Amino acid sequence: MASQKKQKKQIKNQLSRKKSIRTNIRKTKSDQLVQYVKKFQNQFKLNQLDQDNKEIIPSYQSIPTSYQLKGKKKFQKKEAVKGLVGLKNLGNKCYMNASIQLLSNLQPLSDYFIEDFQLTEINRKNPISTQGLATVAFANLIKSIWQMDIQKLTVKGTPIIIPEEFNKIIGYCNKSFSDNSQQDAQEFLMYLLDMIHEDLNRVTFPIKSVQLREYLGDCNQRELERQAAETWGDYLQRSKSIIVDLMQGQFKNSLKCLSCDKYTYKFEPLMYLSVPIPEQEECQLIECIKEYVKEEQLTNGNQWFCENCNKLVDAIKKIDLWKLPTILIIHLKRFKFVENGIKKIEQAINFPLESLNLSQCLPKLQKEKPIYELLGVVCHTGTSDRGHYYTYARSKENFNWYLFNDRQVKQINVTEIPQEDAYLLMYGKSTIPLIKRQTISFPENWPHVIK
C-alpha cells in the first residue's frame, strides 16, 4: 500500500515537473517574441525617423490599374519575371502563404507598398490598429518578393523566402495565428486587410462619432443614390485608407414589417461577398451572387422587433448591392454546419475568367460598368479538418498565370484552375483605369453618380 502511494506521488511529481517545463517553455517563447517585436518596433522607428529627415514621399492621389498597364510590357521568353518567389511553410501556414501570394499579385496594392506610400500614412494613434506592426511586416515581405535580385530568378529552381518576420509579427498581433493550428484562409485574409486598413486609416483620432443613417419609406433611384452618397460621406469621416480606395463598396440593407408595412433601410460599407453555393449539378458564379441577395423571411425564432408595432414581428430582409469596389473578393461558402460537424461542399463553380458583368445585380446608376476580370484564386483541397490552401494568380508583370503552392511556383494555363476547389476569387474591374483616393474633399471621386 505504501509502495502504491509512493508510486502515485512520484507520477504526480513527474507530471508537475513536465507541466512546469511546458509553462517555462511557453513563457520563454513568449518573452523571446516580445523581445523580437520590440527590436522590430525600434528598427521601424529608426527607419521612420530616417525617412522623416528625407524628402517627403508624396501621398498618392490615384494609382493606375493593371488594365492601363497591360500591353505596355513585352517580355522575351527567357527573360526572368519578378514576383515568382515561393514561401516556406512555417508549420500549417498554407492559409497564410496563399493569402500573401494573392495580395502580392494584386498590382495596385503591391505597387503602393513597393513605392513606400505607407510610410507617410501609418496611423499610430488608432487604438484598434496594430500601431503599424502588421502593415510594416507585410510591406517588408511584399518588397522582399518583388525586389529580389532578378538574377536569382534565372537560376534553376524557384527562389524561396522564409516569411519568419511576418509570421512572428502577425502571431504577436493575433494569438489565433501564433501557433501551428490550421486556420481559415478567408478569415486570415479579412483580418490582414482589416489591420492594414486600421494601420493606414487617414482619419485623425479620436474619431468624431457618426451615427449610421436610417431611412424610412421607398423613393426613386435618384434620391436613393443621393442618400447612398450622403452615407458614404459619413463613412469617410471615420474610415479612409488604401483598402477603402481599392476594396470597399456599398450595399443597401432593408427590412419590411409584414404587420404594419414599415419599410426601413441603411447603406453600409461592403468589403467582400460571402456567397452561398446552391447544391446543384451545374452552378454559375452569378447564381451564387443572386442567392446572396435573395429576400430572407424573418420568422419564428428569427423575428424582427418593429418599433411601430412595439413587438417582435415577421419581416422581410433584403440586401441590395449598390456600389461594387474596384477589387472584388468573392468568398464561396464551401463549409457548412451539419449534425455531425462541418461538411465541405465539393460543388464545382463555373466562374468567368473575364467579362464578369454584374450589371444585373446593381441599380442602373453606375459611374462605370461593373465588368470584371479574374486576378487570382485561392483554392482549398481536402476536408474541413485536414486541408491545404494554395493560390493561382495572374502576374502583374507579364499577365501570365502561375500556381503558388508554398515553395512551388510554376506557370499554368488558366483553364487548369479546379472549379471544385475554388474558395476565394479576386476580380478587378476592367472598366476603370485609375483607382482614386477617397476623401470628403473630392466627392467627384466617389463611386456615386452625383449632380
From TrEMBL:
One of its GO terms (biological process) is protein deubiquitination. It comes from the Eukaryota. It catalyses: Thiol-dependent hydrolysis of ester, thioester, amide, peptide and isopeptide bonds formed by the C-terminal Gly of ubiquitin (a 76-residue protein attached to proteins as an intracellular targeting signal). It is an enzyme of class 3 (hydrolase). Pfam families: UCH. Residues 1-23 are annotated as: Disordered. CDD domains: Peptidase_C19R (cd02674). GO terms for molecular function: cysteine-type deubiquitinase activity. Residues 85-430 form the USP domain. The keyword Hydrolase applies. InterPro entries: Peptidase_C19_UCH, Ub_carboxyl-term_hydrolase, USP, USP_CS. Its EC number is 3.4.19.12. Signal peptide: none annotated. The keyword tRNA processing does not apply. Keywords: Hydrolase, Protease, Thiol protease, Ubl conjugation pathway. Belongs to the peptidase C19 family. This is Ubiquitin carboxyl-terminal hydrolase. It comes from Paramecium sonneborni.
